[in-house]
Specification:
Blueprint: E1 2-10, E2 18-26, E3 29-35, E4 46-55, E5 57-62, H1 80-96, E6 99-104, H2 109-117, E7 125-128, E8 132-134, E9 157-159, H3 162-175, E10 181-184, H4 203-215, E11 220-224, H5 227-236, E12 240-243, H6 249-258, E13 261-263, H7 266-272, H8 281-304, E14 307-308, H9 326-333, H10 338-345, H11 348-351, E15 371-374, E16 391-396, E17 399-402
Parallel strand pairs: 1-4, 5-6, 6-7, 8-9, 10-11, 11-12, 12-13, 13-14
Antiparallel strand pairs: 1-2, 2-3, 4-15, 15-16, 16-17
Helix pairs in contact: 3-4, 4-5, 5-6, 9-10
Length: 405
């Protein structure tokens, strides 16, 4: 089937916008994207006219947990079946909000991915990490429950200590065809005992993780708040830094030199401030501790020219899913231009997968025919981001999956 989209404004994801542009797709692949005046004739195409067209968005830091609260300790008391049912609704909301691809860095995504690919579940194309790797007592641990209870919790994280255990954890994820390996290289906010500034995993463990992942052409995504964790992750060769709250100029320059990517996740920090009553006292205190540093670190990264990818870090079920694109506005608030922020949300997303990157995130010959249409001009007005109703059309792999009415 031939699909044709004519747009008053075409934003290709990387490169300059085109006034009066056209996208043509044959099946699930783009065959033309450029000026309408130069587009081939397509008399039999399924044609649509829209004000603004751009690539489907990438959320490079998502989670599908099916939890109904930001308190992750509740996962111990929730069955996997009910959480999966909730995640199915989250996937649909996310897709209708304009996100056509998700790098899922810990959660149910690794088992939902085949159902999405088969068309049994409506949602973004998922590139999943499987279980995130954490040290015992680290950010991926649930400190306020007995450790033996965690053995019965699937699709959250895996505790591993020492080179032998981290190597086995990577291989276990690869056995499920994980497309990325996610590690907790520092403490975090949503957990109880660990401290965001503290490094997790030794240099030896980090090197083993990166080397084992690299043999299977997988990149490593490192959750890092504190500077020690950021530096250790970069030294070991991790491809992406998630959050980066205490990033400084020296670390930013190292990221540029190594072509590492920052996924700041401004979205979740902003969202959690309105959910104090649902968080533990300790987690909220840590949120307050890192917030200003995180905002400053994002600005440092932008100034230094660090490549940035959009990630929301929505990690619990509900109506936040579908509003992921608010991160684009937040990146602009931190100093990115409108085009830079859109590139972070489109063309830069696949690059976070390293060797596993698909041809996606750009309106370009040979790329995936994932396209969205907006009813506002995002080059002039960022206020529409985060509102799924402002995304009027979504094409996924050339198929129209959302339209007005």
């Amino acid at each position: 089937m031939t699909t044709r989209i004519d747009a008053d404004l075409l934003i290709p994801g990387r490169g300059e916008p085109i006034t009066n542009g056209t996208i043509i797709a044959e099946g699930n692949t783009i065959t033309y994207a450029g000026p309408t005046a130069a587009a081939p004739e397509t008399p039999d195409a399924d044609a649509t006219n829209v004000p603004v067209a751009l690539p489907g968005l990438w959320d490079a830091h998502g989670h599908l947990t099916g939890l109904t609260t930001p308190d992750v300790s509740k996962i111990v008391f929730e069955g996997e079946v009910v959480r999966t049912a909730r995640a199915v609704g989250d996937l649909r909301r996310t897709l209708h909000g304009g996100v056509t691809s998700m790098r899922e860095v810990g959660g149910l995504g690794i088992d939902l991915e085949p159902a999405i690919a088969a068309g049994d579940v409506s949602g973004p194309t998922v590139y999943a990490a499987g279980d995130a790797l954490s040290t015992t007592g680290g950010h991926g641990d649930i400190h306020n429950v007995p450790s033996d209870a965690l053995a019965h919790v699937d699709h959250f994280g895996v505790l591993c200590d020492g080179v032998t255990e981290v190597t086995k954890a990577v291989r276990t994820n690869l056995r499920k065809n994980a497309r990325i390996i996610k590690i907790m290289a520092s403490g975090g906010v949503g957990s109880e005992v660990d401290h965001p500034l503290h490094q997790q995993f030794s240099a030896e463990e980090l090197r083993a993780i990166v080397e084992e992942a690299g043999r299977a052409e997988r990149s490593v995504a490192a959750h890092c708040h504190g500077l020690a964790g950021i530096k250790a992750a970069l030294e070991a060769g991790c491809h992406t830094i998630e959050h980066g709250s205490y990033l400084d100029e020296e670390a930013a320059d190292k990221m540029v030199a190594q072509s590492a990517i920052l996924v700041p996740t401004r979205f979740i920090l902003e969202a959690l401030f309105s959910l104090e009553e649902q968080m533990s006292r300790r987690s909220y205190e840590k949120l307050e501790m890192v917030a200003d540093h995180h905002a400053n670190a994002t600005k440092i990264a932008i100034t230094a020219g660090v490549r940035i990818a959009m990630g929301s870090d929505i990690y619990f079920s509900g109506d936040l899913h579908g509003t992921n694109s608010l991160e684009i506005k937040l990146l602009q608030d931190a100093g990115m231009t409108a085009l830079e922020a859109i590139e972070a949300a489109t063309a830069n997303g696949p690059d976070t997968l390293g060797p596993q990157a698909p041809l996606s995130g750009q309106l370009k010959d040979g790329y995936d025919a994932d396209v969205i249409a907006l009813d506002f001009n995002p080059l002039e007005d960022s206020s529409g981001w985060g509102n799924p109703d402002r995304v009027t059309h979504v094409w996924q792999a050339g198929t129209l999956v959302k339209q007005p009415g």
